Amino acid sequence: MNRRKTVFDALLALLIVVAGGDGRRRGGPEFGKGLRFSGSGSFRIALFADLHYGENAWDDWGPKQDVSSDRVLSSVLDQEMPDFVIYLGDVITANNLPTQNASIYWDQAISPTRDRGIPWATLFGNHDDASFEWPLQWFSADGIPEIHCSVANFTVAGEKGCSFRGTTRIELMKAEIIRNSLSHSQYGPKNLWPGVSNYVLQISSSQDLESPSVFLYFLDSGGGSYPEVISYAQVKWFQEQSQAINPFAVVPELIFWHIPSQAYKKVAPRPKSTIKCPCVGSINFEEVASQEGEWGMMDTLLNRSSVKAVFVGHNHGLDWCCPHGQLWLCFARHTGHGGYGDWPRGSRIIQMTEHPFSLTSWIRMEDGTNHSRVSLLPVPINLK
Ligand SMILES: *[C@@H]1O[C@H](CO)[C@@H](O)[C@H](O)[C@H]1NC(C)=O
Ligand SMILES: *[C@@H]1O[C@H](CO)[C@@H](O)[C@H](O)[C@H]1NC(C)=O
Ligand SMILES: *[C@@H]1O[C@H](CO)[C@@H](O)[C@H](O)[C@H]1NC(C)=O
Ligand SMILES: CC(=O)N[C@H]1CO[C@H](CO)[C@@H](O)[C@@H]1O
């Protein structure tokens, strides 16, 4: 028996090395970095979706919106005191940023979390690395650009103008990771680029740091500098990772990306109708704006009993969760004051317990109220 255990341990160690367990920046799970269930066996996550910092950075109202977003983040963090925060994409509105280095705005978005000593992870949406779009109002009637370069940092292009290069996904991630020990973000494996935020984090058992209790998977659903897709390469990466670190699918897995997959359209309540059971939520004011294609990610997730739920942002006017097979498809809640729509701001909270495993979610509003509490376990088998 002992000998078999030793062989098993050796195989496991080999698997961990093969899976890149030593490489925090290569998309493998990080071990021993300390995300774990509390002594009382709980773990709470706040999702910050669609903050859109830096919107209309040259106007008065843009920076004012950012101050309002700071207030939402602080309010949610102080009320919920989460163990972990996930920035679910569209952290900044890069297409509005006449600046050399959008990391300054990215940093503003993470600072309320960092100031409270709470660890976090980020992933990319479709606005984060979008290139700057010159606003029409900068051009006078006779078509000569006004010089607005002094409003923010800029790159001088030749003698007479300014150009704004935009900040790439890699640069944004690098600036975050280098400067923040509380950041759990990763660049993901190079073979998945231009998709960058592809990685998995382990939440360990309260009893044993080596023992995984939950895996969190982050995927880059594209947009901005490339199409809004999850590629087949990402699907394969997920399959290989999950096989390597959770071969018998016994550890629960939660999935996070920005743009809803096409499956969200299938389970969605009719747009603008009342949200009815089995879906749970409070706003349903738009059609699902889904990814441009489906390369097999949803089939893979549906096939894996350990996957419990997918969480996305992107649609500011939707905040529901609906079941899909054995898993739940959930929207976060529009958290930032940037971005379209004026529905009240809030944050989807995810609460887990370890023994027995439970997964509950609700939405915490900026004004302190909460609603849409739902247990994401278990899904009744007879639901579609
Ligand atoms: C952008 O800013 C970050 C943070 O200040 C810095 O680490 C990084 O080097 C800057 N990048 C460029 C291209 O200026
Ligand atoms: C689902 O699982 C079955 C059985 O393990 C396998 O044969 C099938 O190829 C899987 N389908 C997908 C899309 O992963
Ligand atoms: C959440 O809201 C309900 C009413 O909808 C209230 O009874 C409950 O106390 C609230 N919970 C927290 C933690 O604020
Ligand atoms: C708005 C902005 O980007 N301001 C920065 C421009 O660069 C100077 C010095 O490099 C910084 O101090 C500003 O914060």
Automatic annotation (TrEMBL):
Pfam families assigned:
Metallophos
SUPFAM superfamilies cross-referenced by the UniProt entry: Metallo-dependent phosphatases
Q: Where is the Calcineurin-like phosphoesterase domain?
A: 43-316
Q: In the UniProt record, does the keyword Ribonucleoprotein occur? A: no
Q: Which GO terms describe its molecular function?
A: hydrolase activity, acting on ester bonds
Recorded hits in Gene3D superfamilies, A to Z, give: 3.60.21.10
Give the CC-aspect GO terms. cytoplasm
What's in the keyword line of the UniProt record? Answer: Signal
Q: Signal sequence: where?
A: 1-23
Q: What is this protein called?
A: Inactive purple acid phosphatase 16
Which gene name belongs to this protein? PAP16
